[in-house]
């Protein structure tokens, strides 16, 4: 293996990453500023700067991040300058894999705050040791957080996170920390919603009732988005929260999707029985179990009646597949916005940006292809506003359309959209298929 002489490096790129912006965090701007000063001190030419803002290194590997992928596609460079090793990776394997990728293109990794220089054999060895200690530190922090959470739960205190609807947290009158109590403004709405569900009302019917009667929204939503309304996901989540029966979720406020939460994963005593706080209970444990069974057994009854559904465009009906599950993605709405969602893993992608993105690519990349006696662009113009006709034109050119999961916290990312066009057959395509 050969190593680049650091004194001969002339071209470099900068990389910065940040999970969550806080006062104590080293901002993206500060990281890049430090990296620029390092490059200037060595007399290196900076040929690019790449960032991943709002991206966790624990959850997302470097190759799964948009900024890092863009860096790897950049023009020739000799070194990548980062602020610290943990800005690139929090796991040793991720760090080594990223470094190996750079080695394959003859580039080295340099960290400003850590005394490493991957352009030399000694620097590489020391960097690996730093990565090992960094992973050990991450695991130690996790262990301390878990232990602290367990102790808080045993003491009956609230460990933080999203406050369940119908409740609020107050200073613990019996000692340090905070505890949950019922929220007098919202608990009556919660109790009525639970009673309706136990009587057979659908989740959508409850959401409509809450909206029509002006029920106050969950505090975390109403504080951030003034125009948000009740929806099926919000109602389903509050009906599945074990706090309804006075139980304490084992990891309260953590998961964002009720479908990924086990409602019976609760704090239990030494005999395996749930620890009950009667002052918080709206229903008893038996009623809670019945409610969960009713919610789990419903499939089509949860859907709105056809006359109450919001119409969505058939343009991508049975066209896109989930890259994880290989299932066709369904069209629907989320917060009254059109989306495609996977019925298996529940990933979604908004169509407000996806549809025009596909249209632009179709007309730009395939517009001059022959389609019958006309071109794709001419056939598209003839289709006009007819979404079914537009879908038919798209399908003549499309071999596959797959949607993969995006980076947590990101909006529309065109790198999630994997498009493969059909190969032209002597410049001609088959006749338009019949729309589904």
In brief:
With 436 residues, this protein is of the alpha/beta class. The protein has helices at 28-42, 66-72, 92-104, 121-154, 187-198, 203-212, 219-222, 232-239, 285-297, 351-366, 376-383, 387-397, and strands at residues 11-18, 45-53, 79-82, 108-111, 116-117, 167-171, 178-182, 321-322, 330-334, 337-341, 348-350, 370-371, 374-375, 398-403, 417-421.
Describe the structure.
With 436 residues, this protein is α/β, with parallel strands linked by helices. The chain folds into three domains: 6-139, Rossmann fold (3-Layer(aba) Sandwich); 167-302, Putative Large Serine Recombinase, Chain B, Domain 2 (Hect, E3 ligase catalytic domain fold, Alpha-Beta Complex), CATH 3.90.1750.20; 314-421, no CATH class. Helices cover 35% and strands 15% of the residues. It has a five-stranded mixed beta sheet, sandwiched between helices. The chain has a three-stranded mixed beta sheet with strand order 8-14-15. Helix 3 (92-104) links the parallel strand 3 and strand 4. Helix 6 (203-212) packs across helix 8 and helix 11 runs antiparallel to helix 12 (387-397). Mean pLDDT is 80; it is low at 221-227, 253-260 and 426-436.
């Amino acid at each position: 293996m050969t190593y680049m002489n650091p004194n001969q490096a002339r071209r470099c790129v900068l990389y910065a990453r940040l999970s969550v912006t806080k006062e104590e965090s080293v901002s993206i701007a500060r990281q890049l500023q430090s990296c620029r000063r390092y490059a200037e001190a060595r007399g290196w030419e900076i040929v690019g700067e790449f960032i991943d803002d709002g991206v966790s290194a624990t959850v997302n590997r470097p190759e799964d991040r948009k900024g890092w992928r863009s860096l790897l596609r950049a023009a020739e460079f000799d070194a990548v300058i980062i602020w610290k090793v943990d800005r690139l990776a929090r796991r040793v394997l991720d760090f080594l894999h990223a470094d190996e990728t750079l080695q394959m293109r003859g580039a080295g990794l340099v960290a400003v705050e850590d005394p490493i220089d991957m352009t030399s054999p000694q620097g590489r060895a020391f960097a690996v040791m730093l990565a090992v200690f960094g992973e050990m530190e991450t695991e130690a922090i996790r262990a301390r957080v878990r232990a602290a959470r367990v102790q808080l739960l045993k003491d009956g205190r609230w460990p933080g996170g999203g406050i369940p609807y119908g409740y609020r947290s107050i200073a613990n009158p019996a000692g340090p920390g905070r505890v949950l109590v019922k929220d007098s403004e919202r608990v009556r709405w919660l109790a009525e919603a639970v009673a309706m569900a136990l009587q057979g009302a659908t989740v959508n019917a409850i959401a409509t009732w809450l909206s029509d009667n002006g029920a106050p929204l969950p505090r975390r939503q109403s504080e951030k988005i003034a125009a948000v309304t009740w929806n099926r996901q919000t109602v389903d989540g509050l009906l599945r929260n074990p706090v309804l029966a006075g139980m304490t979720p084992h990891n309260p406020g953590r998961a964002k999707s009720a479908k990924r939460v086990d409602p019976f994963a609760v704090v239990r005593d030494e005999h395996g029985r749930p620890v009950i706080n009667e002052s918080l209970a709206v229903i008893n444990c038996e009623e809670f179990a019945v409610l969960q069974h009713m919610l789990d057994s419903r499939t089509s009854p949860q859907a709105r009646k056809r006359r109450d559904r919001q119409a969505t465009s058939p343009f991508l009906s049975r066209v896109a597949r989930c890259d994880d599950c290989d299932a066709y993605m369904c069209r629907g709405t989320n917060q009254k916005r059109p989306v495609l969602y996977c019925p298996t893993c529940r990933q979604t992608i908004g169509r407000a940006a996806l549809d025009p993105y596909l249209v632009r690519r179709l007309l730009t990349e395939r517009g001059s292809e022959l389609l019958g006696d006309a071109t794709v662009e001419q056939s598209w113009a003839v289709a006009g506003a007819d979404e079914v006709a537009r879908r038919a034109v798209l399908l003549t050119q499309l071999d596959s359309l797959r949607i993969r999961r995006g980076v947590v916290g990101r909006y529309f990312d065109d790198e999630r959209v994997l498009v493969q066009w059909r190969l032209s057959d002597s410049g001609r395509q088959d006749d338009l298929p019949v729309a589904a």
